[in-house]
Design brief:
Distance between the termini: 40 Å
Oligomer: single chain
Radius of gyration: 26 Å
Shape: globular
Number of domains: 3
Number of strands: 38
CATH topology of the largest domain: Beta-galactosidase, Chain A, domain 5
Helix content: 10-25%
Bound molecules: (2R,3S,4R,5S)-2-(hydroxymethyl)piperidine-3,4,5-triol
């Protein structure tokens, strides 16, 4: 039984995989956190108040209480999990547990993406019901523990059960005290073209916060934060990771209390969020996914990978190999006609690609990024036969046909904007801030949602489209919806995201066979919320293979290879100017959903042949890279050699991938130890070298890397 309730000790013990998470209802009916760590083997913990208070202190007991739901106004001085302002303007809440129940499986969350179960046996859910007698606020804290992995999810459902309006001023999805302070913080920091660099800083005094206020999860920080032992590494040590299934602004923090103990939190960013609850109304927080690992960072990542690949992603493509694609962006940008596209597509088919994707520039009068977003009608000067005509010809070549959209946007120079100037996010009487010469449609408005669903659906119905790249290329300004009353203006960002989710649910469920890939100037919205609707995301606009090592390594901290778009582009690379051999470019891209961003016809003949062989190899390996356990072995942030590996479920096949960048002269050959394979089995490479599993595990394999931009991809199979 993954959730055990002990009425005498008043504890709930949630156990799964190697993890337990324990809650307690104290004598005053407060919900306290007792434990999150290695599996306890049953309900063995009790609460002793003196363990949590000092002998003598100036501080209020609540400020150091291991509260599971810190609230505002009664002595908790950090960001509250639940902050409420009542009709008189007072911000005080006192939540008491009223009851609790244990449910099989996992309920969905209204209007929000969330991980799910397919069978009830996969997980149990604990619902704890609390209320605030004075305001009438009712809170349901939902905890699901997955039996196999031990991942715990949490979200809060707030309902106004009183008779006057309440305003939610703060809403965290998880806030967990870790009764220790000697820890490091991990987060994924970045920028456009250098997303998700793994950062590690000591958890010190005060508060460490990462935020997005952009209205998207953003390039700068990812909705993820972890604490780990100071000596934890990829393979050993304890890690506590929080990931938020949400695509908008967020806050994640680590706050150290007066005893030096850390509390880790994740949820809505109160700087750009508040929500009015009229009597009877509810709001649900996004879901936090909490993963504990006693086996270092790889252990945490592998749990996230399986959960996000198998129980967050949905639909037809979830369990299928993704097609090798060729995207027109870097080979054609805005400058193409049908003849040029067909020539690229024919070459793509010759090298074995399966899907041709027409990127930006096919609609309205768009020949640069200064117009036409919102006018989703084909530019017949470029494509005289329309999209249906092009799609038919691409299908005739033997390729599937994919199309780029940026449906959330509008260009000031567009028919849509001229017809509906009020549909964008804007503030009365103020200039509308443009970025990339575009404005954002106000997706909190039902008529805007309807417009997007019908415009995109019409094209998907009429044009033979097999794949959609859903892009979003700027962040929010003037994010105060024109249709909301003053007291609700700060709801705009969250209402936008809820509107976006409504739109995505409508479109993806109406076109279940279409493969959707999300994108936001590359990886500016690479988050679990988007992965619920679209099983893959364009990882970064940076296609340089050297930079990609860091980007893909960092992304893998939370996200599976099956979620990452990874393409081979032309050299010199358009983002960095670097020239990397085709072999290494291909060897890096095979670590994700493989594709090209170049015109194969422009490659010299020997490289065209090389590309063809590369695609054949990708097709042979893509089941393994999609479903295998991913191991980070050597970090690109730590030295000149990067290595990772994919190990099959039965541990009998392993794909080792290693890369060398700026090697140090006169250095010893690099040896890397494999992980997760069988010690008592012999493994054979494709050129018949045999290795004992134990030797690969404990002594390692010497990497035959020579010089700069070299790569080594080696398939080993149990012999
Ligand atoms: C940003 C994306 O990340 C690129 O891949 C490309 O689709 C451009 N937008 C097109 O405008």
């Amino acid at each position: 039984m993954p959730v055990e309730m002990n009425p005498s000790s008043r504890t709930w013990t949630l156990s799964g995989g190697n993890t337990s998470y324990v809650l307690h209802r104290d004598e005053q009916d407060r919900l306290l956190h007792l434990y999150w760590g290695p599996r306890l083997g049953g309900d063995v913990l009790t609460y002793n108040p003196s363990d949590y208070s000092s002998f003598a202190s100036f501080d209020l007991p609540v400020s150091v209480l291991p509260s599971e739901l810190p609230v505002c106004g009664t002595g908790w001085f950090g960001t509250p999990a639940v902050g409420i302002r009542d009709a008189r303007g007072d911000e005080v809440v006192c939540l008491k547990v009223v009851s609790a129940e244990i449910l099989s499986g996992k309920p969905g969350l209204p209007g929000l993406p969330a991980v799910y179960t397919e069978k009830d046996e996969e997980a149990d859910t604990l619902a704890v019901y609390l209320d605030d007698a004075v305001s009438g606020l009712q809170v349901t804290a939902l905890y699901t523990v997955f039996s196999c992995s031990g991942a715990v999810t949490r979200s809060l459902l707030l309902k106004n059960g009183g008779s006057e309006p309440l305003t939610v001023t703060s809403l965290l999805s998880a806030s967990v005290p870790i009764w220790r302070g000697d820890l490091d913080i991990l987060h994924l920091n970045g920028a456009w073209a250098r997303e998700r660099r793994l950062m590690r800083v000591p958890a010190g005094e005060g508060e460490f916060r990462i935020v997005s206020a952009r209205g998207a999860s953003g390039h700068e920080e990812n909705p993820f934060l972890a604490l780990c032992d100071r000596n934890a590494d990829e393979f050993s040590g304890q890690v506590w990771g929080l990931s938020l299934v949400y695509s908008g602004s967020f806050l994640a923090s680590c706050r150290t209390d007066i005893f030096g103990h850390a509390r880790i939190s994740i949820g809505m960013n109160p700087d750009v969020f508040s929500w009015q609850l009229d009597p009877g109304e509810s709001i649900c927080s996004p879901e936090a996914v909490m993963v504990y690992s006693a086996e270092g960072l790889n252990g945490m990542s592998q749990t996230f990978h399986r959960l996000y690949r198998d129980r967050l992603a949905r639909g037809f493509w979830r369990d299928r190999s993704r097609p090798v694609l060729l995207n027109s962006w870097e080979s054609a940008y805005f400058y193409f006609d049908e003849k040029k596209l067909l020539a690229i597509a024919e070459k793509a088919a010759e090298i074995g690609a399966e899907l041709f994707v027409l990127d930006d520039g096919w609609f309205g009068k768009r020949n640069s990024d200064n117009c036409s977003l919102g006018d989703w009608t084909v530019n017949t000067e470029k494509l005289p036969g329309g999209l249906a005509g092009l799609s038919e010809k691409i299908h005739g070549i033997g390729l599937k046909f994919g199309l780029w959209f940026e449906p959330e946007m509008v260009s000031p120079d567009s028919n849509l904007y001229r017809a509906h100037p009020d549909w964008c996010l804007h503030v009365y009487n103020r200039p509308r801030t443009e970025a990339r010469q575009q404005l954002i449609l106000d997706l909190s408005r039902p008529e805007v949602q309807e417009y997007i669903v019908s415009a995109v659906s019409a094209l998907l119905t009429s044009s033979g489209i097999d794949y959609v790249k859903w892009d979003m290329n700027r962040n929010m300004t003037e994010a105060f919806s024109a249709i909301l009353p003053p007291e609700r203006k700060k709801e705009t960002q969250h209402r936008y995201i809820l509107g976006l989710y409504r739109v995505l649910e409508a479109i993806t469920s109406a076109f279940p066979d279409v493969l959707f890939e999300s994108c936001s100037g590359g990886g500016g919205r690479f988050d679990p919320g988007m992965l619920y609707y679209m099983p893959q995301t364009w990882t970064s606009d940076d296609t340089d293979a050297v930079e990609r090592l860091k980007i893909q390594y960092g992304t893998s901290i939370v996200y599976p290879a099956s979620a990452m778009g990874a393409h081979v582009s032309a050299v010199p690379n358009h983002q960095t100017g670097r020239t990397v051999p085709l072999k290494m470019r291909g060897d890096v891209a095979l670590g994700g959903n493989f594709g090209f961003e170049l015109d194969p016809g422009k490659l010299p003949p020997d490289e065209q042949e090389e590309a063809k062989q590369m695609v054949a190899r990708v097709k042979a390996l893509r089941d393994l890279t999609r479903t295998g356990t991913f191991w980070r072995l050597l970090s690109p942030f730590a030295g000149p050699v990067t290595a990772w590996a994919f190990v099959s479920e039965d541990r009998r096949t392993v794909l080792l991938c290693a890369y060398s960048v700026l090697p140090v002269p006169n250095s010893a050959p690099v040896r890397v130890r494999l992980r997760g394979i069988l010690p008592d089995t012999w493994y054979k490479t494709e050129d018949d070298c045999r290795f004992a599993g134990a030797a690969l595990l404990y002594q390692g394999i010497t990497l035959p890397l020579r010089g700069d931009f070299d790569s080594f991809v080696c398939l080993l199979k149990a012999d």
